[in-house]
Amino acid sequence: MVDAVVIGGGPGGYVCAIRIAQLGKSVALVEKENLGGTCTNWGCIPTKAMLTSAHLYTEIDEKSKRLGIDTSGLGYDLKRIMSHMNRTITMSRKGIEHLLKKNGVDFYNDVAEIKDAGHVLLKNHGKTLETRNIVIAAGSEPSIFKPFSEIEGIWTSNDVFQMEEMPESLVIVGGGVIGVEFATFFSSFGVKTTIIELADHILPYEDRDVADDIRKSLTRQGVEIIERTKVTEVEKDECIFVLNAEGEQELSVQAEKVLVAVGRRPYITEDVRKLGLEIERGVVTNSRMQTNIKGIYAIGDIRAGMMLAHVASYEGIVAAHNIAGEVMEMDYSAVPSIIFSNPEVGSTGIKEDDVEDMERVIIAKFPLSANGRARTVLENTGFVKVIADKENGKVLGMSIVSPSATELIMEGVIAVRNGLTVEELENSIHPHPTLSETVLGALEGVNGMSIHI
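Below the sequence we write its predicted structure tokens.
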């Protein structure tokens, strides 16, 4: 008998298992494929490894002459880019394996089948684990549907990580985070790239001004962006895909490859469905990550909530503490959303587009072009936007478009999560010259006292 069996070794599952062990409870982790789940093997880690190469290539290509550096003969080697990606994945997997051993987690590389709330069958071992609690962290899989599912050779994000040569042209269906990041990668190396997005603008979960700056950047990179348009038909003519679409006007687009990047769906197996769990789009839980069946928890993408690795990890922490007998609840008020475009995007808290009563808030923006550090690195596209409560001065939301926005946004996360005021952040001395001073500039702007614009 163990205190918990965690099913799924992704960023939710392995973090949950380690924390359960750290809290003095016995725990087994079951993963049917590779440790790290989607994030390590088919998502965050490989994408960012590839984008590191793309960002570096773009930096050298666009800035070297102005910075006095001779880089004649600049080129790239896809095999080495993919080799770097694969090394990064392997190192991450091994790191997780080491952490499991270090913390005394029993790991089974096997297919788990939940028999009931107290028993999990390891199908390959032929062994049944008896447990007091089960944590389901089975993750998600790429969404693909008609007409794309009926055509051979259509890529999902998983297929990109196995490519052996760069296509000459690519259509990306979906202009969300996944689509924009892949458009950034491929266009950096000269691939003729087109994004087709159904919503009013790319990055539909970010504010329009954020999307506008990323659209401008991608357009300068040669990406064609078609918004408010739905693909209705896909045909394959020898080595070329032909996509027919309709929106404000009908159009036809051709490309060597098509990548469907419209998001992911929860991976819910038949044994999970048979348990009698409440399932809507994903498995339903309360704020303690408990399902409607006592002793069974669900975390991460299988909940179909915020499908982010860092959210899954923290949900795993919450589940672990509740399993250990403590009371801990999830707080989604300050979840950071990050995009490794060029420039990067980071946001947290409320968005301007979601503000219902504009009279209750103050919104201030500070342009990247007014920042000294940005000028030294030849960057001028982007801004920091702060949304504050007019009455008490608390920071309610922040959006950043900038190099290193994925790092800079943490100041906003801490402010929103802890109810800090604009004054409290503004009175914290920001180092000079740094990009973090763009945050300071936006904070000063809340009270109409920006120094540098």
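The chain has a mean pLDDT of 96.
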